[in-house]
Design brief:
By secondary structure, the chain is an alpha/beta fold. It contains 12 helices and 15 strands.
Length: 389
């Protein structure tokens, strides 16, 4: 019932513990959030009650699902409702920073408990459950070619299915033209919030950049690299640290017919050489991400932000500019002050030559039940135009 120390994380369970000689089974454990394999695993099916599943999950026991797929989803929803009922509301007098920490802690607890409902992928990435969808293509896109069976949480499986649907459908980006879509890959931040894209679309290009070269640092899906080419840059070098993001950006550039003008490289933040325009949309919150997709939002100690600022002067051609696209949500949450941001800009030998602001339009700004509603409603996203001092 417990994992054994092996190179590959593994879970072990018995299919029928009531039998005189129960059959022991094992499977590789896979978690995108780097959650450790559960130490104890029991088999669950359509007879398992939500109260029992919730209690076992809170104790750290994983439930390997052997019943109907849709019943597993219903069980997950029932466990989620129990978490909501038992969670403590954030105090009204809590500071924004305290609210943020408590909110992250609650989300972490929810992820740990719900992550204990586990399913087994067969050695061809199929799911042997009644009424289960065909997930083979979705998991091959996310994980690569099958390499034996593996156990994953149901929440992760649903995330992979959702990512596959987004990849198939794509996200429409009006700034790129009518009906033009960007297709995000699993684990790559999707451009569903378009205010930062609109800022890059309307910011005045420095004269040196017209027909010149740009760097797009932390490109993700490659949406800003494509936009810069649409705006007249002759060549864009797009960088990212994530292999999935690099593959995603290359695929989108090729899909848009821009492969000859968008060069995708990594994992270094800055490529070699200098550019007339350097654009960076770093993660907005200085906190630790818990999954690959969260790396688009959370960045411990603002590492990417400071890396961009301190490398900018050495990577700009004469007359060039750096564009920092950054939300002030961290300021409203008490995680960073405006003075600290301006100090970081000055200490990098840079000065601000202009700034464009916009307010977010996503639904969470209007959700008064969100514990962070006050900060989200006050959020402003800015494009800071920077040049060497």
């Amino acid at each position: 019932m417990s994992t054994t120390p092996t190179t590959t994380p593994t879970i072990h369970w018995s299919e029928d513990r009531s039998a005189p000689a129960a059959h022991s089974h094992s499977a590789r454990w896979h978690s995108e959030s780097a959650a450790p394999p559960p130490r104890r695993v029991v088999v669950a099916d359509d007879r398992t009650k939500a109260a029992t599943a919730y209690q076992l999950a809170c104790e750290g026991t994983a439930l390997l699902w052997r019943g109907d797929f849709h019943n597993a989803r219903r069980l997950l929803q029932a466990m989620s409702r129990r978490i909501d009922r038992k969670s403590s509301p954030i105090r009204p007098d809590a500071t924004p920073a305290e609210s943020f920490r408590l909110h992250r802690r609650a989300r972490g607890h929810r992820a740990r408990v719900l992550g204990k409902l586990v399913v087994l992928l067969e050695d061809d990435h199929s799911l042997s459950l009644r009424r289960a969808p065909d997930v083979r293509r979705a998991f091959t896109e996310a994980y690569g070619p099958p390499r034996g069976d593996r156990a994953v949480s149901l929440t992760e499986l649903l995330g992979v299915i959702g990512a596959h649907q987004w990849r198939e459908k794509g996200v429409e980006v009006p700034a790129l033209g009518d009906g033009v879509r960007i297709h995000p890959h699993y684990g790559v931040f999707s451009p569903v919030r378009d205010e930062y894209i609109d800022l890059v679309a309307r910011a005045p290009l420095p004269p040196a950049a017209r027909g010149g070269q740009a760097f797009d640092l932390g490109t993700g899906t490659g949406v800003l690299a494509a936009l810069l080419v649409r705006r007249g840059l002759a060549h864009v070098v797009a960088t990212d640290i994530g292999p999935r993001a690099l593959e995603c950006a290359r695929e989108n550039a090729d899909r848009l017919g821009l492969a000859d003008r968008v060069e995708v490289t990594g994992p270094a933040l800055y490529p070699d050489g200098r550019a007339d325009l350097v654009v960076c949309n770093p993660p907005w919150l200085p906190a630790r991400p818990t999954s690959s997709v969260e790396q688009g939002v959370y960045d411990p100690d603002g590492t990417m932000l400071h890396g961009f600022l301190h490398g900018l002067a050495d990577h700009l051609r004469p007359g060039g500019e750096g564009w920092l696209v950054l939300s002030d949500l961290a300021e409203h949450l008490g995680l960073r002050t405006r003075a600290e941001l301006l100090t970081a800009i000055g200490s990098a030998g840079l000065r601000v030559t202009g700034r464009l602001d916009t307010s977010p339009r996503h639904p969470r700004t209007r959700d008064t039940t969100d514990p962070l509603h006050r900060a989200r409603a006050a959020e402003v996203t800015s494009l800071w135009r920077l040049t060497p001092d």
